[in-house]
Amino acid sequence: MPSQMNRGLAALCCLLVATGAARADHLYVSNEKDNTVTVVDAASLAIVKTVPVGARPRGLLLANDHKSIYVCTSDADHIEELDLATLTVTRTLQSGPDPETFALSPDGKTLYVSNEDDNEVSIVDVASGRISGEIPTGVEPEGMVVSPDGKTIVNTSETTSMAHFIDAASHKMIASVLVGSRPRFAAFTKDGSQVWVSSEVGGNVSIVDAASHKVVHTIAFAIPGVPAETVQAVGINLSPDGKLAFIALGPANRVAVVDTATFAVKKYLLVGQRVWHMDFSFDGKTLYTANGVSNDMSVIDVGDLKVTKSVPVGHLPWGVVYGP
Amino acid sequence: MRHALVTIAALSLATAARAAPPPADPDWPCQQRLVPHLAFANYWSGPAPASGADWHDNQSVATLAEAVSARDVTPEEGVAKLDAFVHGLPSTERATILPLLFTALVAQTNEQRDAVIARLKELAVRQRALAKRIEDDEAAMQANPADTTGPAADDRAAIAARHDLLVRSYHDIGETIRYACQVPSDLDARLGAYARALTGALGTE
């Protein structure tokens, strides 16, 4: 779920690490029911540790310095910082009530957190761990993303089915764009020209032009034999080269692979059950999915577009992030 | 009494806060979105069953599907039985029998889920009726002050006693719903485990 900017920094970090001692990367999976984060060795896919965290962990983000991850512990009403060297929670940050999804500014200094219960986005200063401001937004804010240049925040509102564009400097709402029903997640393209918004009830993805704030295309999904009501679009990850988009389709148990140039669905990959969110390895060759019903993480070979492995994790896995 | 009123108010608020979005089916009480029926294609990446094949006609398949689809069978127990069945099956028959078996498993699991979903909807209807009766009693008590005397005081005491019972029932049903809401999802998870076991045996995973 890290931003494209983070991905760039990740690649740089990876390169730097490669010049020094070999260091294994890891996957971090939030288990909503167990109140834990499962740490998986990326090479062996063995579980290294299960870290206890606050109640109902969901959204995860890798810090820009790659030394920690931030965890939205929704029912604890705060964000926890998990130190990757010691694999322990070292501090908590304010978040506003019921944090579920959040986004990190490209400079890594600010977290934007959607607070579903009070219709606001909380602005959290990472250094102090305190809320520095609140932005009133649509009803039941959900998806959060920051543009690659850090100037625009996009927040989706579940109830009004809108994507709200907010100026990051003034905190003023620039535009509200009607998208599919119950928008859950938003992602900017690497060049910042488009925002992709998934709609859980609509079962589709709206492509919004970031300059004109118009929906320029809607991607629908139809899987032979799979009931339409089980096609619930949630997580979106754009490949590091920008050519492919991977859309998690919830209880359809599929990840759709979309050509970003034509918006055509190239393939549906059968993964674990109720796939929520995903993340790429630093090199972009592997995609990992958190599957909330089958309690596992699917591993996808991005080159071959094949699911290669299922890794059991905790109960109700929701988010996954790739890190050192 | 004040405690009971506060409790029921808090319960209603908590329910409202968590019940997002408004469900398509007003009688579905669970936070999890309702998936009315599970379909073969949601799980299966292997070969399709032969055209016209009916699992009811294969006694061993029908018996096994029923045995592993009961509510109290754990995924591990069920997978062990499936593995044993696969082990005893000539490899040349797997590509035809295993898709047929999975068709049976989907049907049997849907049968189990349908019963749970129907029960949950019944509970939701009862819960709504209870909430209405509790609200009516609370309105009656507010209209009849606590320091009232005479026959009105007796009426108020009777309403208060009934209100306490209704609140208790509301809480009990709420707990039952909370527990039962997980069951369709657990059955879904078990069916997925069966699909992985069978497709694994086919070598198509």
The main β sheet of chain A shows up as: 4 strands, antiparallel
Count of structural domains of chain B: 1
- Separate helix tally of chain B: 6
- How far apart, in Å, are the first and last alpha carbons of chain B? 60 Å
Query: SSE order of chain B in H/E notation?
Result: HHHHHH
Write down the overall geometry of chain B: rod-shaped
Q: Could you tell me which chain pair has the largest interface and how many residues each side has?
A: A-B, 28 and 20 residues
Instruction: Give the averaged pLDDT of chain A, no decimals.
Output: 93
- Regions with little confidence, pLDDT below 50 for 5+ residues of chain B: 1-23
The helicity of chain B comes to over 70%
Let me know the average pLDDT of chain B: 87
The overall strand count of chain A is 28
Helix content of chain A: under 10%
How are the strands of the largest sheet of chain A arranged? 3-2-1-28
The span between the termini of chain A is 15 Å
Largest sheet of chain B: none
Rg of chain B (C-alpha, Å): 25 Å
- Rounded to an integer in angstroms, the radius of gyration calculated over CA atoms of chain A is 18 Å
H and E string of chain A? HEEEEEEEEEEEEEEEEEEEEEEEEEEEE
